[in-house]
Amino acid sequence: MIKEWNLLRAIACSSVLLLHALTQTSRIVGHPQLDVYHFSRIILSFATPTFIILSIIILANRYSTGLPENFWAGRIKYIYLPFVFFGIIDALVRKYFNVNLIIDHKILDNILTGKYEGWFVLVIFQFYFLFYLVIRFKPSMKWLFPVSLLIMGWYLYKIRGEFPSLNGLDYLLKISFLAWFGYFTAAFLIGKHYSYLAEKLFKYRWATILLAAGAIGMMYISYRYGYVEISSRRIDLFPLVIALSALILAWGQRLPQSRIVNVISNYSFGIYLLHWQVQRFLSPYTAEFTSSYLIQVGVLFVSSLLISILIIKIVSLLPFGAYLVGRVRKTKPIALNQQKSAIPKVVG
Description:
Blueprint: H1 3-29, H2 35-44, H3 47-62, H4 71-97, H5 103-113, H6 120-137, H7 141-158, H8 172-175, H9 181-192, H10 194-203, H11 205-224, H12 237-252, H13 259-286, H14 293-316, H15 322-325, H16 336-340
Helix pairs in contact: 1-3, 1-12, 1-13, 1-14, 3-6, 3-9, 4-5, 4-13, 7-9, 10-12, 11-12, 13-14
């Protein structure tokens, strides 16, 4: 695995944990009435789109001419089945906190409509199908990329309204590929031409800082003008996702290998699916740990990360564990010469 991809995945995963640690703590002690708090939560929303597009970056880099024979079987076993498993777990946990919940309805909602924190898996599977179509019919990205941006922008603008005719199923609008179409084509282009792009990103890595700062500045202007929604479907989030991804991919080539980064990256899929449940149980205790809000959030973030990794590790040791928490790659020891390497070779 290309090491800056691991870094990007680890940062996206950690950002989601931090965002939800802020959310869970604030539900108990209240939301701080500070601009920096609310704006930081908006910025952290970049994480889920980043995690989604990384899956296509990797596919486009590895399988630009065709999919392997076991492609669908592997992804159903190691991605979709964990999605179903954690959909059931989510329903059980919610039943624990709300005895009036109709659990069979909740399980169906979770699995069929993605009405829990694992919804991103349904988006990824739509991307897999889109990837198959692009590989099969080979449309030109010269027109598909701008068209996808226009479609995504139009769709995100339209779904900001109310849809009473959907009778509570408006959550389905979130997982439609139309809300993410531009991310797909951008990720496809990045992955297919990654060797070239990685070289350019590293060469102009200082420019990626300016690009990211500009994207954050645009978000702040939107925030100051009243666009305060904390969502991964914000219309103006696309430039931020691309800019921060470019920043991490550029500087990730410069940074040495890190065992912590690799561990978080290897466990990231399971962490995404599990951490919310862990935080539900931990947050009442971490909120009473101290009167300092930052320490409350920090303790919840670290403890939920470690406990999630521990649970995933234990489950992964079972013969069928990979069908429940996904595949967990073993973290290889980092050689001393790799740690000292200042500029590792870019592998495409």
